[in-house]
Specification:
Residues 1-20 form the signal peptide. The protein is an alpha+beta fold. It has helices spanning 5-13, 106-111, 133-138, 182-187, and strands spanning 37-38, 40-43, 48-50, 58-59, 69-71, 80-87, 96-105, 119-122, 155-164, 195-206. Strands 1, 4, 6, 7, 8, 9 and 10 form a 7-stranded mixed sheet that branches. It has a 3-stranded antiparallel sheet with strand order 3-2-5.
């Protein structure tokens, strides 16, 4: 769906003023990109918008060559948040880490989190899904890059937002993007149970054109 800049601004201004506390966390094995409060994802240059209405739809990966703007309308005042962007695991691979940002202020998510907001732990990497089965037959040396599905199905991507219960955190940088252990990384953050959630999410599928 392509929207004009004026419509994008209107969407941001129309966000309701409401808030929510995180009361429980979900292990990474039970995550689903459309199961939590929906984020609004906007990529101004490409015109792509993802919301509750089209969560999990398949899109051209070029739509997200640039970091999107993320809106979370229930962010709690004076709270900080962690944003993760991952390629979801399939039968043969684990999660692939596309982007990791911590200490994102509530005001940024209410007004639209930009690339420079928060403290970046792992830089943004645009989606690079697997090619279709037909393309793979033509190019046996193709590299799936971020762990795309080898069966020709769309690679699934997800943004998850976690609430930082005790304020500012100083987490370690993951040693690799590949086979990213989300639960393991969260467990390294001091003090224990510093992250709660996810409190919001949005996801999509993508196949290399």
């Amino acid at each position: 769906m392509v929207l004009s800049p004026l419509v994008l601004v209107a969407l941001a201004l129309a966000m309701p003023v409401a808030h929510a506390f995180c009361t429980a966390s979900v292990t990474s094995g039970r995550l689903s990109s459309c199961a939590f409060h929906p984020l609004l994802l906007v990529v101004a240059r490409s015109g792509w918008v993802l919301s509750r209405q089209n969560c999990a739809e398949t899109i051209d990966p070029r739509a997200l060559e640039d970091p999107p703007v993320l809106y979370y309308d229930l962010a709690e005042p004076d709270h900080l948040y962690t944003v993760t962007f991952v390629a979801e695991p399939n039968t043969s691979t684990g999660r692939y880490l596309q982007w990791l940002v911590v200490n994102v202020p509530e005001s940024s998510l209410i007004n639209g989190m930009m690339y420079m907001d928060g403290d970046t732990i792992v830089d943004y990497l645009s989606p690079a899904p697997a090619r279709s089965v037909d393309d793979d037959e033509d190019d046996d040396d193709d590299d799936d890059g971020d762990g795309g599905d080898a069966d020709g199905q769309p690679t699934r991507y997800a943004f998850y937002v976690y609430e930082q219960v005790y304020g500012t955190i100083y987490p370690p940088t993951p040693s690799t993007r590949d086979s990213f252990d989300l639960d393991g990384w969260i467990s390294t953050i001091y003090p224990e149970a510093s992250l709660c959630g996810p409190v919001a999410s949005i996801g999509f599928g993508s196949v290399r054109q």
